[in-house]
Design goal:
Elements lengths: L2 H24 L12 H4 L40 E3 L16 E2 L1 H31 L4 H18 L1
Antiparallel strand pairs: 1-2
Helix pairs in contact: 3-4
Length: 158
């Protein structure tokens, strides 16, 4: 047989012998009698009495932490101008179509007036360049450049 089997059998026999001898020498728990309680045994335990009073505690719990946004979005205007009002606070959740800011209409009107004036000036420059090209005092590329500037000014008005 293997050594591990022999060791297991020896341990099992020793355990059985221990319990049998213990039961024979000391006796079973049924044979032991409960000794009558003496006044000395009952006085071993002492009770501690403490008076507790109810105390009102504040119902506010202050926690500190840091949160991070799930997403961040950069918002850009399609037109230039100064911001007149911001009805939505920074960090507020918004939906499609919500107004984020209002632009000043006075600045837009001033920009339109400036674009119209620039367009009129570029038109005069182009007409003058065309006349000078017809007389031979200017090159065709300079007239084409004046025409491009006039077209850009008209696009700014639109």
């Amino acid at each position: 047989m293997k050594k591990s089997y022999i060791a297991a059998v020896v341990i099992a026999v020793l355990a059985i012998l221990y319990f049998v001898l213990h039961a024979l020498l000391i006796g079973s728990p049924k044979q032991t009698r409960a000794a009558p309680a003496t006044s000395e045994q009952t006085q071993r335990f002492k009770a501690v009495v403490q008076t507790l009073h109810a105390v009102t505690r504040p119902g506010v719990l202050v926690l500190r932490g840091r949160s991070e946004a799930l997403r961040s979005v950069s918002v850009r205007a399609e037109t230039a101008g100064s911001v007149a009002a911001t009805p939505t606070l920074e960090g507020t959740q918004v939906k499609k179509g919500d107004v984020l800011c209002r632009l000043s209409l006075q600045a837009r009107q001033a920009m339109l007036d400036q674009a119209r004036a620039t367009s009129a000036a570029r038109k005069l420059e182009w007409q003058a360049a065309s006349t000078l090209v017809a007389k031979g005092h200017r090159s065709a590329t300079q007239a084409a450049s004046a025409r491009a500037a006039y077209d850009a000014a008209r696009a700014a008005v639109r």
